Amino acid sequence: MSVEVWRRIRGQLLESLGRDACRNWIDPIEFLEVRDGTAFLLTPTDFVSDWVRRNYAEPIRAAIQAEGLAVERLSFQARGALGDTVSGGDDGSANGHGTESDTETVLARPSASGSGGGGLPGAPLDQCFTFNRFVVGKPNELAYAAARNVAGSDTVTFNPLFLYGGVGLGKTHLMHAIAWDIQERNPYANILYLSAEQFMYRFIQALRSNDTMNFKELFRSVDVLLVDDVQFIAGKESTQEEFFHTFNSLVDQKRKIVISADRSPGEIDGLGERIRTRLQSGLVVDVHPTDFELRLGVLQAKAEVLCRDNADIHVADGVLEFLARRISTNVRVLEGALHRLFAFALFIGREVTLEMAQDCLSDILRASSRKISIDEIIRKTAEHYNIRMADFLSPRRARSIVRPRQIAMYLAKQLTTKSLPEIGRNFGGRDHTTVLHAIRRIEELRSVDHHVAEDLELLRRSLEA
């Protein structure tokens, strides 16, 4: 590529990206060479390489291809260190060979030359987040069916699809799966996935560079728009106004829209009434917290892949069931725990056993057990020993009551984050020294009295089930 060609490419980027973006990010780039379909570009620092790769890789590649050069990949070299390669197939999608955070992800409609039509980079799409890797159970079956409908239907039956729920329940997985599925069915579809924060940031950039018309044209020309974490724009009036008009334009054109949030539209404070009503006009689906069966299914699917990739590692019976019962916060924590176990087993060359899981994941297990309340511990312990609650919390000091009470205090300290005075107040207003004595006494007994040890284990399992 000659210096003159690179100058023309920079001129194209000036028109499409604006003066500020080019001055800050494109002008510092030096062209090195084109080799085997890859354009090698030199940047001043790793930070510039990373930023340009994330935000401008697709426009740069499209501009190079517009000059008639057969370039499908960009490699950014930060003076002394070769950056990750960003590649795009004939469909204009990005299929980087770096890490997930390094992968450029616009799934854009190609023109006759094969360059992306939209040219607006979105957020990374995880290639593991597909429908065939999504474990379906009762808590998420409606969300899964709705996502499948959006991806597989040629018509728009409801717009938007609004998915909401807590962290790690599969909302982002479903959004990525929709994008991949639509692209597979129609490589010419112009698909854009990004977070609400990125939408706001790009809108602000357009305002600063007096380039709002180009921003509007790019966002309102997509076939499918997927926006994650829309609660982020709550209270941001200008961004909401632009999002509202973008939303209306796409709905009028019968383009597909998928939105996610941590709450339903009616529960997001700071959201304008017009946009709230619009978001509620489609299909609003609550992605419920996982149950034991779903968590176990996720673990079994993940463990199968990990065992296939690490043939020397074996998971003992009962380990996955133990994790599914103990870690109920969200799937991300569950998968992270399994990854840690496999890494530990790989490093020390041992089988993944229940004992290893308890030792290796002690911090996660403690955090996951903290949701148990003292009232629940008292009730379960009283039921276990067939003691009336009134007697359990009374000043009575009969041995048949004192020992179960001490066991309950011990469990309260082990399974909750409450302080000793707080525990004492829950046990009929007892002093913290009484609680401390109970904990120490049960610690002594559990190692010498197998009845106490068995009762502790039974109660723990019952509380953590």
Provide structural commentary.
By secondary structure, the chain is α/β, with parallel strands linked by helices. The chain has 21 helices and nine strands. The chain has helices at about 5-15, 20-25, 45-55, 55-65, 140-150, 170-185, 195-210, 210-220, 235-250, 275-280, 290-310, 320-325, 330-350, 355-360, 360-370, 375-385, 390, 400-415, 420-425, 430-445, 450-465; strands at about 30-35, 40-45, 75-80, 80-85, 160-165, 190-195, 225-230, 255-260, 285. A five-stranded parallel beta sheet has the order 6-7-8-5-9, with helices on both faces. Helix 9 links the parallel strand 7 (about 225-230) and strand 8 (about 255-260). Helix 11 (about 290-310) packs across helix 12 (about 320-325), helix 16 runs antiparallel to helix 18 and helix 19 crosses helix 20. It is elongated and about 95 Å long. About 35% of the residues are buried. Residues about 80-120 have low confidence and may be disordered.
